[in-house]
Write a structure and sequence with these properties.
By secondary structure, the chain is an all-alpha fold. It is built from 16 helices and no strands.
Amino acid sequence: MTAGPVVRGGRIGRNWARIDGPGREAGVDLARGLAVVGMFAAHMVELPAFRWTDPTSWEGIANGRSSILFATLAGVSIALVTGGSRGLPPREATAARWRLVVRALCIWTLGVLLSATTVPIIVILPAYGILFLLAMPAVRWRPPALFAAAAVVGVAAPFAVHAINEAAFWNTAAGAAVDGALGWHYPFLLWAAFLALGMGLGRLRLREPATALMLLAAGVVLAAVGDGVIARWAAPAGWSAALDGAPHSSGVGEALGSGGFAMATIALCVLLCRTPLRWLAVPLRAVGAMPLSAYTAQFVVWFAVSVVGADPDPFAFRGSEPFWPFTIATLLACTAWVLFVGRGPLEWAFGRLASAAARDPRGQTGPHRRLEE
């Protein structure tokens, strides 16, 4: 690990120790920060269709892949707060499951509330909350089982999702309500694969360079297979649409390609944070330390501008090219917050509720509380 600044004493020292201490993986925070900023770009910028062979289109990599990286990192975080590579004994696993239930309900509720605003963004959080519930049975699974589940779901679920999408039900008022409640734009049947992949990664010894290098290579291969091989087989109609690799297509090509991209990105971030770039990346790591708060802030700002601005059209905010001003402001605000205040406001509130739900009669929640949240 590269040596860096040492901050001792006071609020800033304590907060720095929390974000850069031995119980937190800086590379995971960096990857989460990139995922959040990538989603900002997908929401606020007209991105081109991404093609590996066309450098002028590379900014389009944020479309679709950022949200899948976000979901994969949810799995990594769940694994880290439930014992990391050590796992949890049965009693502590029960408390961990209760914590997941409460977090799932909090995240789902927040997602529904954000969806009710006039902000023209398809909110990922309802699906995110459902994924937290789906993680409950897998809290004690080891990496082979988690990776096997990710592979099976990633290949099989696209066909189920495309069959379900053909139902006339989705064109009804009830279908629209269910769509919003489930966050079906991010179908949990398929996205469970990204969650399982992330949990498998979090059960490994990510800090070991050999592990990170192996995952980086595997991720690159998966991305090449998904984007460069399987996606080319997809046709615009019939069952072959389930092989598609386009962003938000829910095809096998997207599942393998973007899943591989997420794995490679996480591994690369872990490796980069073993170099002096660890310190240059502090603002992005700060965003990654409070991702729910940062993600929600875009809705608050967007909605406020639409309500009090001269143009009430919610699409007008995007037309004002807000990405860079908003992103820079978010980087600065999150860095100041984690240093001078501590945990993000939503992360703190949801964490307190989850801890209260999992507290045993002696007022303890188990040693997994010391790990990353």
